Amino acid sequence: NAGVTQTPKFRVLKTGQSMTLLCAQDMNHEYMYWYRQDPGMGLRLIHYSVGEGTTAKGEVPDGYNVSRLKKQNFLLGLESAAPSQTSVYFCASSYEAAYAVQPQHFGDGTRLSIL
Amino acid sequence: SQQGEEDPQALSIQEGENATMNCSYKTSINNLQWYRQNSGRGLVHLILIRSNEREKHSGRLRVTLDTSKKSSSLLITASRAADTASYFCATDAGTGFQKLVFGTGTRLLVSP
């Protein structure tokens, strides 16, 4: 049982390049999330999804796009990378929270540097 | 914007001692969670406390919640070197939904 798997683990990009971060979960979770973690700022929610085919904006969505074509996968795209997007990106998933908040399960992150 | 602020930012103790971390938040909440993050790893859920609860225990962890003061504390008793990590509180910021707002974290170092 792998849980939440993120690929790649590390990546260096040049300003203006594009890339896609992949998140896969094998727990049949309905909800999935993308966060970024910057020094001294904790985690901030970029986008999230409450089910296959649905996405919504979080706290810091600008410069990112997401897709949830399959229930187990949640993709985060950077169309034109900027140095301000240098960060550690975490994907998380959880069961549906219709009646009670559920713990979120996190991947080990993608460390992205943009030069 | 950050909902929670942990205090202290860093804490250094010896094995066997207790560690207490505090979290203050700004808006009303329905629940508050604590997560642990080991260096270079993702966050791991520790405990969830609802707004109508005042205290909760899980093994060596004890969490308290004071909604009147908008604060929570995490106590780790009899600390071990393996407890060395960053600890974050997260709230639903009153939405009752799964969108968590995280604090800035407390870095705990437990020396043998």
Describe this structure in words.
The complex is a heterodimer of chains A (115) and B (112). Chain A is an all-beta fold and 115 residues long. In chain A, 0% of the residues lie in helices and 50% in strands. In chain A, strands 2, 4, 5, 6, 9, 10 and 11 form a 7-stranded mixed sheet that branches. In chain A, strands 1-3-8-7 form a 4-stranded antiparallel sheet, with no helix packed on it. Chain A is globular and about 45 Å long. Chain B has no helices and 11 strands. In chain B, the strands form 2 sheets. In chain B, strands 2, 4, 5, 9, 10 and 11 form a 6-stranded mixed sheet that branches. Chain B has a 5-stranded antiparallel sheet with strand order 1-3-8-7-6, with no helix packed on it. In chain B, a hairpin with a 5-residue loop joins β4 and β5. The radius of gyration of chain B is 13 Å and the shape is globular. The chains are: A mainly beta (115), B mainly beta (112). The interface between A and B is medium-sized, with 26 and 26 residues.
Instruction: Please give the alpha-carbon distance between the first and last residues of chain B.
Output: 37 Å
Q: Classify the secondary structure makeup of chain B into a structural class.
A: mainly beta
Spans of chain B with pLDDT under 50 lasting ≥5 residues? none
- Mean pLDDT, all residues of chain A: 94
Helix and strand string of chain B, N-terminal first?
EEEEEEEEEEE
Spans of chain A of at least 5 consecutive residues whose pLDDT stays below 50 are none
- What proportion of the residues of chain A is helical, as a percent range? under 10%
Helix content of chain B: under 10%
Average the pLDDT over all residues of chain B and give the rounded result.
Answer: 92
Shape of chain B: globular
Largest sheet of chain B: 6 strands, mixed
Strand content of chain B: over 45%
Order of helices and strands of chain A: EEEEEEEEEEE
Task: Please identify the structural class of chain A as seen in this structure.
Answer: mainly beta
Please give the radius of gyration of chain B in angstroms: 13 Å
Distance between the termini of chain A: 36 Å
Count of distinct strands of chain B:
11
Q: Oligomerization state of this entry?
A: heterodimer
- Largest sheet descriptor of chain A: 7 strands, mixed
